[in-house]
Specification:
The structure is a homodimer. Chain A is about 35% helix and about 20% strand. By secondary structure, chain A is of the alpha/beta class. Chains A, B: Keywords: ATP-binding, Ligase, Nucleotide-binding, One-carbon metabolism.
Amino acid sequence: MQTDIEIAQAAEVWPIEKIAEKAGLTPAEWEPYGRDKAKISVDETAHKSELGKLVLVTSINPTPAGEGKSTVTVGLADALNGIGQQTMVALREPSLGPVMGLKGGATGGGYAQVVPMADINLHFTGDFHALTSAHNTLAAVIDNSIYQGNPLHIDPRRLLWKRALDVNDRALRHVTIGLGGPTSGVPREDGFDITVASELMAILTLSHDLMDMKARIERIVIGYTYDKEPVTVKDLGVAGALTTLLKDAIKPNLVQTLAQTPALIHGGPFANIAQGTNSIRATKTALQLADYVVTEAGFGADLGGEKFLDFKTPLLGKHPDVIVVVATVRALKMHGGLPKTALTEPDEQALATGLANLGQHLQSMTRYGVPVIVAVNRFVTDTPEEIAMVEAYARDFGVQAYVADVWAKGGAGATELASAVAEAAQVASDFKPLYEADDDAVVKIEKIVQTIYGGAGVELSDKAAKQLREFAKRGWDKLPVIMAKTQYSLSDDAKKLGAPKDFKIHVREFIPKLGAGFLVVMTGTVLTMPGLPSHPAAYDIDIDENGRITGLF
Amino acid sequence: MQTDIEIAQAAEVWPIEKIAEKAGLTPAEWEPYGRDKAKISVDETAHKSELGKLVLVTSINPTPAGEGKSTVTVGLADALNGIGQQTMVALREPSLGPVMGLKGGATGGGYAQVVPMADINLHFTGDFHALTSAHNTLAAVIDNSIYQGNPLHIDPRRLLWKRALDVNDRALRHVTIGLGGPTSGVPREDGFDITVASELMAILTLSHDLMDMKARIERIVIGYTYDKEPVTVKDLGVAGALTTLLKDAIKPNLVQTLAQTPALIHGGPFANIAQGTNSIRATKTALQLADYVVTEAGFGADLGGEKFLDFKTPLLGKHPDVIVVVATVRALKMHGGLPKTALTEPDEQALATGLANLGQHLQSMTRYGVPVIVAVNRFVTDTPEEIAMVEAYARDFGVQAYVADVWAKGGAGATELASAVAEAAQVASDFKPLYEADDDAVVKIEKIVQTIYGGAGVELSDKAAKQLREFAKRGWDKLPVIMAKTQYSLSDDAKKLGAPKDFKIHVREFIPKLGAGFLVVMTGTVLTMPGLPSHPAAYDIDIDENGRITGLF
């Protein structure tokens, strides 16, 4: 069997000017990065006045079995093109740190991939590197301000702005800096996050244009003074420099699928501590250019899906026309209690139990008033009986399920799914937001927990309750909430698979992200700097004298 | 008066395909990065069999007055083109950290600049970011290996491989990492260097091709075992992954001067702890394509110049045909004892004293058997008498001096200089290396100190002497030496301007760089992570809604 990179390397890749033309871009709207990548800048009103149909791909709670959400997203876009619908796909950019750590790509798989796969997974067009630069420039300016007499009275013990690197490096989670004597700064505790966890990443993907980005950057709260007043980037005076560093990163990147479907890949915020979807600019641009835009949200429907519908949709000014929930028989069996080693054998009992996870997501997604469709991403070990069980289960929620066999067949493996999506997208939908913009933070969280997670309620820690009282004084208490919760469970306990009931969500603390414009709601701990495994993927990656890469996935 | 960036923004910039064509590149030999930058890959034997003439631009010891070596390099290339000689310029890439710190560009100035100036000074084509990624991936793999049972018995107290960021950040010079308990690594002391100080930067600029680079990366010594045996990247097994991360960074970058002279800008190693010149690949490629290649070496002739002639030349397989030594009246007056505030007034006494600095460099450069020419980079405050003094002084060394007025006039300000360079380049030269490859390290250092610096001799610290005995056992004692010395003085005392005599150079320690293939000879301390000033340049940089940047320089 061919590996993903072998399939990608053997593919027919069109020159990027041909993809740009196919996408409907004028020559002034794109600039090349190599022969098969481009950055694009499209005016919000330059193309179609009626936006295309938006298809959101989300999933059940992820398991170690793998769900293949990106693969289905790419395959569905190819399938829509295959049935004659002019379609683009809009994805997030992969983070380099995990590429060197754990195998497993973010560019789809098998015959449903975006290419050039290796470049996209390595440095791509440098967006993440620009974010790393801007992030660490701000960090250096903060410590320099403290060192140079601390005119802003920044309390070094109350800094929120850490440093960032796009590397899986657990040794950088907790560090002390500024050691080495009086000429090397002021000693203090600090830490590094992986670049995708930076607030600048969230901002980049939310900004409509350079000035919107600069205004957001100015509002970032980097810490507090000795009087516990917030200090912002505006106070430091470097929003212009940071925006300058991100002037190209703000432009969406154009590539193609293996079937030459134009693909916009831009931004990569986490789906727990941030909004978890590609950029507003990329999505808007794609909607202007294509009749159908297929996009995905990170993790399951409870995290990325909810954030797309409650947070991104108002900013985008456009709700999804269809929601596709991806599930696999394997993953559902894990939700039903099977260990990963037992997934290749049919087990209708485990599947029946695990389907409850799908059920909760179908219940929560259908409430938004948008057509919902299930995509069963096929694995070779799936039996017809198991697939029929999923289809029957979905029907009980009024939802049709279709098999997607895109890993092995590309778009041809999802023709039925594509037809169903195209048909559903024509239905005029009545989008029903989950909460009102001026609901209190706690009200917003309760609605999410009860309606989306199927939980019983919310418990605030003393710290979180105290923070909310402070936030009310600062006018931050009506901000949208971004739930940071384990992706593996509907609850805040990663071990509770399936569809747990009667659980409470425990809010440990809030992290205000004033630049991005939301409050992160921390339930449990979220690791913002991964580590490498005992056998990192980097051990297996190699390149030959002709530049041919092996072992990337 | 217009600023550098205003001049650059107003310039007529040709599309990069036109520059590629002018340079003689076939379409398969380059790929675009935006509309005005490209990466190129040229086979070593694809073009002219007879290489072009190589012009090395170096200078007196730098002073805060500024010498404008890059400006003269660019202006001279434009002037050579102006008098009908097909010329390319080959420069180093600027480092982003200092761009956010101190004003002052590395892309020339005034009407002798390379463009797009802002892009080149910001992220350019991502080479430095790729180096940062590769450097920190290796660091993460090292700490992960220690964390995962330490199979290589690495002594965490004897690690040589620090972490790297392209940011001026003094707070990262000395840090402790791995804090936070058993799941966050093994606590140890560490530090960050600025990316240009990474051995990977030296390697990138020395490598002939991918396999040469991989072999060099394998040889990097990252530290020692508990038994004090060296541990290499080969032992860690990630040379393939690191080379993969640098697969595009190894390709030279093509841009243009304001006069549309093709320019290759590639690599940026320090001139003290590394070789201080652009890449071997870029220089070789330019020599294949053009009749004249003008390149520069970092800092003064004692540092970058010496390293170019003694270290780079054998690797390049080609010595310079002409050496141009840049001086300014202002800087010479500082070498003569004037403070920076007094430089605008004529002072023949100070100039006469300061000329001794030029004298030492002319003496050392002429010994290589290659024609030497002085370029006096004109400032508006220079008097005709002062310039005449410099010309007369140079003549005593058998060297002609010419005024270069390229900041104000571009290539038109250096026609005479260009004609003299072109004429000198036709003289068959008899290159005389300073030392033999199999001289002992101490012999090499002594020859550099006595002949190039005009010093009395060398003193080794106890540590350095002990290291040399160890190196002899490992077979490292015949490696080329790379002197890490203050750039401001011929001696190792930055305060000794002019031409100090009877001084000794004190070798504190050696740093073996087995991947790059040299021993760094540390005299005094060299700061490998700069700090930001009290008013960083980042405070003044801004961008408007049309993407127009201000305050970059």
